[in-house]
Amino acid sequence: MKGKYKAAIALLLLFILLPLTLLLTLAYWVPTLAGIWLPAGTRIVFEESPRFTRHSLQIPDLHYLIEDCPVALVKNAQLTHPSRWKLDIGSLDINTTCLAKLPETEPSPGAPTTLAEWQSMLPKTWVTIDRFTVSPWQEWEGKISLALSEENQVLHYDGEQVSFRARLRGQILTLTQMQLRLIEGEPPVTLGGEFVLPNVPDGIPVNGHARTTLTLPTEPSLVDADLEWRNNEGQLIITARDNPEPILDLPWQATRERLTISDGRWNWPYQGFPLSGRVGLRIDGWQDGLQNAKISGRLNVLTQGDAGKGNAVLTIGPGRLNMVNSDMPLQLTGEAKQGEMIFYAVLPAHLTGGLSDPKLAFTPGALLRSSGRVIDALNIDDVRWPLAGVKVTREGVDGRLQAILRAHENAMGDFVLHLDGQARDFLPDDGLWQWRYWGTGNFTPMSARWDVNGRGEWRDKTILLSDLSTGFDQLQYGTMHVSSPRLVLNEPVRWLRDEDHPFFSGALTLDAGKTTFTGGSVLPPSTLTFSVEGSEPTIFQFKGDLRAEKIGPVRVNGRWDGERLRGQAWWPRQSLTVFQPLVPPDWKMNLLDGSLYAQVAFSAAAGQGFEAGGHGVLRGGSAWMPNNQLSGVDFVLPFRYHESNWQLGTRRPVSLRIGEVVNQVTARNISADLQGNYPWSEENPLQLSDVSIDVLGGKVTMSQLRLPQHDPALLRLRNISSSELISAINPKQFAMSGPFDGALPLWLDNNGSWIIEDGWLHNPGPMTLRVDKDTADALVKDNIAAGAAINWLRYMEISRSWTTLNLDRQGVLKMKAAIKGTSFVEGKSNTVNLNYAHEENVFQLWRSLRFGDNLQSLLKQKAKLPAVPCANGKECEDKQ
């Protein structure tokens, strides 16, 4: 009996210890047992052993490997059975790059083959995966919920980029509430439809119909996509709601060996650059997996512009695309036309690398060219981009980047520019692109030839212009000639394109040789230095100064905000003598004294144009010329400028004050004020006021002159000394003394005939007229009949005179004078009435100034004496 008890106890221990041993060694025997049904070369690995709890099976991790490549990783799985089987998985990561290593195996003879057989094997199960990720498309991460039974299979997927609901009942697959967020900021794409799956799930659905509504990027219109097929053929049509012409029409046929898209059509009418064409594609072995499929196709692009129609063809393959290493030849050949531009392309290339990390390399002969007209004035003769050896990867562009531009502008001239550089994994704000540039051209308007050269780089988020030198051999325009102006860098131009702390800075110098003018004026060699600092090239502040030897510095600062340029300029007070080189030598003018300073604020914008306002001040100016001397010149010029219109005098009028002008006639205390607009108009007139000059012992004034002119401006003469006037004119034939007054109505801006109309002169006090003895004797000798009258004019005291003046626009001066006075000759006195008329063209200045010579001939005709008694007791009358 003892032996029987021992056997029973041993058997009981076997039944107890065997399950316990199996539980404790799950991590060892489960992978081995699972390997019986797994494909050859694949295996399951546990890093931490699964464990049972009272109500669940806990699997901390599970690795599914193809060779040594982890194709799937399960974390924190738990299997329970509350009312049906329930599997909760913390995360499931699928690595698609490992699928290419999956060996080809024959299916097991006993394996399920039909969809119904697969469905019949499904227990009633709930499956949840909190985080499901497929690399390299991690952005499509989401949560999966599955409800499985033999009759229904329901799938819910929820992610930030994609979410959908799907139900499979038998062979009927219904897709509802599918949303794809393809473009940030755009509404999601929605998709729905119903499909009939094949009985044997080794191909595409037998038939089906799917419809979706899309929103095109940057376009407001909606498009409808409709996919329908039956058996082995179907059609995809995408149509915009506002255009009956389909955007995409793809008829296709599918067999077990080949998927073919034949005579597909596409049309893109948006962005002002309509495109259209046809597409054909063939995929051999498409059911054997992407890595085994052989792809070939052809896509052509039709364009139309002002230069005509263009056609470009993209040839694809034959080649392969897969997740590890693609091998696909590509070539784009043809031309495209947009507006008046034509683009020519011969771009052979080769696509390699996995789909998650593709690499496109342009092969020898790759060249992109263009010609045409960019704007109305600029003609692109030829621009060339050689691309052979350039590689494009996910990291960026790598290789030598070149460009050659030849262009001309009919009025401005022609030029050639070269760009040559090297890129290393370059993308905007990532990687490195270093370049150098150079070029030459002609600037026709100023008869100049220019050149430019420099270096720079774009390193990550920093664009650096390290070298720049550009200039002209000369600038010649009208009367101006500038010698060899050139712009160079003082400090590199640097632009840090950082979103949080952007920065832009640089410093430049513009040097120019002498600037000469036809009249002989010379501006000494000048230098403009300025610096910029801001956040980017469209938002910065600038400051600088301009010097031309002793002239200046003129200091400038301001800002540019991308739309408007604003700034201020200061001209510090400096001596007027520094401007001596600007005075033409022919003027024979020496600047002796005085000072000048100015301040201007300005702005410029595309819709506004250029605006400026400020003031300039000249104090104590004096100058010497052979026949003139000026001293005590004060000039204040407040102004505004807008749309080619000058507003002279803003808060106060333009003011001119001159202490003294020494000439043939000395003038003192000259003053005048000017205010208004130039060019003037009825709405915005120009007004000259408070004109006053002390001259010839008296004063000349004018209260107001308005332009455009409706009333004459009255020029008043008060207490003008006739003796000083005669001394200035310096006639030798006669002399006068005594003051006279007058008023001259001036017309400067009217359509009438007169410059001076009905002007007058008169003497407010006694005046004397003395005719030169030689002149009088000559008059008596030449005209014996008038001799007696001429003798009475040798010395005359004028008690009253009245002169009228009229000056027309042809310069003809008509003057009439009536003079009454007393003549004293040889101790005798007599009353004299003199009527004098004179007509002459004053535009012939010196002739009109020879007043005395004209008077000599006219006195013979105009002198008139009063009646005197004759010897016979009758009255005698001297005739003219």
Key structural traits:
52-stranded mixed β-sheet, 61% strand, disordered C terminus, mainly beta, single chain, 880 residues
Brief write-up:
Helices cover 9% and strands 61% of the residues. By secondary structure, it is mainly β. The chain has a 52-stranded mixed sheet that branches. It has a 4-stranded antiparallel sheet with strand order 31-32-35-36, with no helix packed on it. Strands 57-58 form a two-stranded antiparallel ribbon.
Account of the 3D structure:
It holds the Pfam family YdbH-like. This is YdbH family protein. InterPro entries: YdbH. With 880 residues, the protein is mostly beta strands. The protein contains 8 helices and 58 strands. The protein has a 52-stranded mixed sheet that branches. It has a 4-stranded antiparallel sheet with strand order 31-32-35-36, with no helix packed on it. Strands 57-58 form a two-stranded antiparallel ribbon. Strand 38 and strand 39 form a beta hairpin. The chain is elongated.
* Structural class category: mainly beta
Shape type:
elongated
Helix content, binned percent: under 10%
User: Major sheet: size, sense and barrel closure?
Assistant: 52 strands, mixed
**Total E-strand runs:** 58
**Number of helical segments?**
8
Radius of gyration: 52 Å
The termini sit apart by 191 Å
Mean pLDDT: 81
Beta-strand content estimate:
over 45%
Organism: Phytobacter palmae
InterPro entries: YdbH
Protein name: YdbH family protein
